Amino acid sequence: MSSTAQSGPNTKHATPAPQTAPLSYEPDLTADVLVVGGGPAATWAAVKAAENGASVVLADKGYCGSSGATAAAGTGVWYVPPHPEDRAAAKASREALGGHLANHHWMDRVLDQTWHNVHELAEVSRYPFPVDAEGRQLRRGLQGPEYMRRMRLRVQRAGVRVLDHSPVLELLVDEDGSVAGAAGYRRQEDRPFRVRSGAVVLATGGCAFLSRALGCNVNTGDGYLMAAEAGAAMSGMEFSNAYAIAPKFTSVTKTAYYRYATFYHADGSVLEGAGSAKGRSVIARTLLSEGTVLCRLDQADEAARRAMRLGQANFFLPFDRLGIDPFTQMFPVTLLAEGTVRGTGGIRITGDDCRTEVPGLYAAGDAATRELICGGFTGGGSHNAAWAMSSGTWAGRGASSFARTLGEYTHHRALTPLGRAGLRPSGTTRGQAGDHRLVVEAVQREVLPYDKNYLREGARLTTALESLNDIWRELRHGLAGGGETTVRARQAAAMAATGRWMYTAALARTETRGMHKRADFPALDDPGQRRRLITGGLDELWTVPESAAPVHTTVAEAAAA
Amino acid sequence: MIEVVSRSRCVGCDLCIRVCPTDVFERDTDGIPVIARQEDCQTCFSCEIYCPVDALYVAPLTGPAPDGSPHREEEHLAATGALGAYRRTVGWGGGRTPGSRYDRNHLFTAGMTGQPGTRPNPLSGPGLPQAESPGPDLASPH
Ligand SMILES: Cc1cc2nc3c(=O)[nH]c(=O)nc-3n(C[C@H](O)[C@H](O)[C@H](O)COP(=O)(O)OP(=O)(O)OC[C@H]3O[C@@H](n4cnc5c(N)ncnc54)[C@H](O)[C@@H]3O)c2cc1C
Ligand code: SF4
Ligand code: SF4
């Protein structure tokens, strides 16, 4: 255990100056491992890297403990006892829903690792789990603020140096293209910072396109963009159109209770076929055609209502504060985009230690693809939480082991910064594309509407992708920030990039599978397309089935190795 | 969105400035936080549960509350018990039981894709927890 992350001027290590030396970095740190993010994936990665003997810096855009989807929302966890029948049932449950794209090797590992980590939560972090009548702890759910507060504490006790309000903007690579650190901006101090490291774990969460879904506005796909600039690819980006029910005008996208709901037209007549699970597209269609969908949780009896109050306190916040009794009164609902947060696409993983195609770069949580355990079906409800803690654990260990192999050489490498879009435009700032707000609005017009992203159809996808490509071309040329605005410009660029990978993959998958539903290809599970799609590129986009990907190992090979 | 910082309650501990994930607050010259960038607020309620003196109120709306809205009136929110209500439910603050101890969410996720157990339908009967209260009910500002 160590806290050896040292701050000091760059010259201390007698390294050549970086190619584009900005003013001065404060702090300018060195560490074995840099973890980018502050949610469950990042905190587990930091703890496990530190336990593996590494010096660790964790840099979060927000505050490690309250930032990210889990901290605000809370999660059910895929916590399944190690009994063969239970495990087999757990694995089978999303296999068809996920379009058979999950992988047994990975599901087994995640179930094992999650079992272990949840025990650590109970024993090391003393998480206050509820208990049953016999006094046994019930460990299948985690309340967000409580879980993440305890993870922050554990990170600090492990000697990790935590930088809050420190969004990372770009990766730094050495002469060989290995990732060797990252640079970012300390928002509350108004100055750039840098961390040189042996390896980097990207745990930046998914991308929900600033839709204001609960806790998700920090998740703008930054990690995807940074990974792509270093040469990593994405996987499963077509499974990035999760939409969650929320009371209209609110942020609270807790959806489990809507299975007790009846949905109605504005005139109070029942909306046939609408539901939380299978009937969500009916809600989307009705919102498009009629503008209003009403809801009432009238299928819950007295006992259920009491239990629901105890189950998810934050579910009731908007109702209580708006003076609505959701069990007896109708209220309008909306669908908020949660993109890859409750979708499954993300950075492609190429080994059991959550490495990517780029040496020194690891990915965990929603920043990584979750197809390996839930295919094309949502990772929400249980799998994502299990994946975040498991992949975080492996990435933290993997990154620290990689850093160790570099030895003395680690902090003496010449660094090249990789950030382009929104950071180093190819032309001079001008016009609409120079304003990050306009870029965000333009991207949102293409990725949020239900008729473009949720209810997919080839021609509409093509038009939306063309618009996003135009947005990208312009922002590549003209979008830049300056000070804190740089963070916002990068977020806008990352959202545009994410949208383009999303639609590129969505167009390539000419069938319906998982959450990806094509109106022009409604047939489910075309046997010829039962394979994961890899997508990548920045100015020029590409997508290929995994087996023909332009990379060394396939996931299946990595898993078998 | 965050609507109220009570100047009379605030003790200037800076916690809300530190924990807000989207950096909405700035410190005033007298040490009291001000809502500097309300449009960045993601309505996550985090600042509220961290504030040790119940000085903050986050309206459940994703846009600003209109002028004259009860969601902007401190006295009203204090009188109805809305200030600090969510912190009580989460069970933070001296002498409180963590709200997570009352969590019965597993009853609702049992049997859901990948979760062990069978889906209860309709959800009722002896398996359900007694109506033990996790604290005062959340008050409505109306
Ligand atoms: C309402 C809701 C309910 C959910 N319920 C469940 C559930 O019941 N079960 C389940 O399994 N899953 C659930 N999910 C999904 C689950 O919350 C996520 O999968 C999980 O939070 C992923 O963890 P993470 O650490 O990868 O990302 P997050 O928890 O989102 O954390 C991402 C972190 O990265 C930071 N970050 C982002 N960009 C940068 C940057 N450029 N530099 C530095 N830091 C950065 C953020 O500040 C944040 O701290 C739910 C999601 C939502 C929105
Ligand atoms: S509700 Fe969340 S985003 Fe808004 S001010 Fe409070 S902590 Fe910040
Ligand atoms: S957390 Fe509460 S007491 Fe502390 S500065 Fe903020 S408003 Fe004031």
TrEMBL record, chain A:
Residues 32-239 form the FAD-dependent oxidoreductase 2 FAD-binding domain. SUPFAM superfamilies: FAD/NAD(P)-binding domain (SSF51905), Succinate dehydrogenase/fumarate reductase flavoprotein C-terminal domain (SSF46977). InterPro entries: FAD-dep_OxRdtase_2_FAD-bd, FAD/NAD-bd_sf, Fum_R/Succ_DH_flav-like_C_sf, Fum_Rdtase/Succ_DH_flav-like_C, NadB. GO terms for biological process: NAD+ biosynthetic process. Gene3D superfamilies: FAD/NAD(P)-binding domain, Fumarate reductase/succinate dehydrogenase flavoprotein-like, C-terminal domain. Residues 455-526 form the Fumarate reductase/succinate dehydrogenase flavoprotein-like C-terminal domain. Keywords: FAD, Flavoprotein, Oxidoreductase. The keyword Metal-binding does not apply. It catalyses: L-aspartate + O2 = iminosuccinate + H2O2. The keyword Oxidoreductase applies. One of its GO terms (molecular function) is L-aspartate oxidase activity. Its cofactor is FAD. Residues 1-22 have a biased composition (Polar residues). Pfam families: FAD_binding_2, Succ_DH_flav_C. It comes from the Bacteria. Residues 1-24 are annotated as: Disordered. Catalyzes the oxidation of L-aspartate to iminoaspartate, the first step in the de novo biosynthesis of NAD(+). PANTHER family: L-ASPARTATE OXIDASE, L-ASPARTATE OXIDASE, CHLOROPLASTIC. This is L-aspartate oxidase. It comes from Streptomyces brasiliensis.
From TrEMBL, chain B:
InterPro entries: 4Fe4S_Fe-S-bd (IPR017896), 4Fe4S_Fe_S_CS (IPR017900), Fe-S_Ferredoxin (IPR050572). Coiled coil: none annotated. Residues 1-30, 31-61 form the 4Fe-4S ferredoxin-type domain. The keyword Metal-binding applies. It comes from the Bacteria. It holds the Pfam family Fer4_10. Residues 89-142 are annotated as: Disordered. GO terms for molecular function: 4 iron, 4 sulfur cluster binding; metal ion binding. The keyword Metal-binding applies. SUPFAM superfamilies: 4Fe-4S ferredoxins. Keywords: 4Fe-4S, Iron, Iron-sulfur, Metal-binding. This is Ferredoxin. It comes from Streptomyces brasiliensis.
